[in-house]
Amino acid sequence: xxLEVDDLHVYYYTKRxxxxxxxxISFALDRAEIMGIVGESGSGKSTLGxxxxxxxxxxxxxxxxxxxxxxxxLTKMGEKELREIRGKExxxxxxxxxxxxxxxxxxxxxxxxAMLAHEDMGKEEARKRALELLEEVGISKDRFxxxxxxxxxxMRQRVMIAMAVSLNPKLxxxxxxxxxxxxxxxxxxxxxxSKLREEFGVAIILISHDLALELKVSDKIGVMYAxxxxxxxxxxxxxxxPLNPYxxxxxxxxxxxxxxxxxxxxxxxSPPDLHEPPSGCRFHPRCPDRMPICEKEEPxxxxxxxxxxxxxxxxx
Length: 316
Ligand SMILES: Nc1ncnc2c1ncn2[C@@H]1O[C@H](COP(=O)(O)OP(=O)(O)OP(=O)(O)O)[C@@H](O)[C@H]1O
Ligand SMILES: [Mg+2]
Description:
Layout: E1 3-14, E2 17-29, E3 34-38, H1 45-52, E4 60-69, E5 72-73, H2 79-88, E6 90-93, H3 97-100, H4 107-118, H5 123-136, H6 153-165, E7 171-175, H7 183-200, E8 203-208, H8 211-217, E9 220-225, E10 228-234, H9 235-240, H10 245-252, E11 301-304, E12 307-310
Parallel strand pairs: 3-8, 3-9, 6-7, 7-8
Antiparallel strand pairs: 1-2, 1-4, 4-5, 9-10, 10-12, 11-12
The structure holds adenosine-5'-triphosphate (ATP) and magnesium ion.
């Protein structure tokens, strides 16, 4: 296994109290696999992504669990070791490329610099590779000397992806990489991720609140709610036979082209304040299938037909 996350707990210690942003999350990811992480705002998706890189900002902290990359636990590593892993073995792509790109530097030079900083290569070689990478992500070579503001949002995101793959990472964590882009460009970026996975064998964790988008490219999908992993299974099963009522509710909110007059329903209510999460199952106040036990006890994570589900419907 490339990545093994085991019983991960991440809390933020704020003035108002403890925010249990990620609790008891476990999963594994293989080489060349694409895993979607989906959930509403505040469910802990970004915190999980940051925790995998051991980059949770203060006042947050990994309080329990492990993150193994090729068997080595990142939660036990020092800053020096981590810096080598970030970028070189795990790369991250964020929603807004403008915050990560230097506005005063030509995009080609930014790519070259990133490679020179990490890799043992000469300037000419880095330049050649940068041109190849731009082509790889679908940006024409004559854009090499453009500044970030001269590119469209979609092109900037492609540059960020080129930066991410430039160091041949084994894993890319993309946090809402296309949220600010229109649907057509979103699809193009998803195609690009699929291509990169096939060509380089890179594994990708795709974080998004958009389940429809996740279903297009992911091999498997983890559904998060209020810091918990509610369900984890392959994308087809999630779409055809969701186990957790929360997953079912998320699916109901996706426009279905076959059922033209299907009513789009968003899930009633809103996600809980994680300073004081609901008792028992954190989803119980909004769950259409809730039973008396749901507000009393936390449901166990169970394996059902090889799929993981955390819900009292599946018993003890
Ligand atoms: N730096 C921080 N300090 C305190 N609490 C934080 C911090 N960052 C995140 N949180 C809290 O942790 C919880 C999870 O937040 P996180 O950003 O991981 O969610 P998310 O699923 O990525 O949401 P979104 O879809 O809005 O990006 C939220 O309750 C949030 O308020
Ligand atoms: Mg987020």
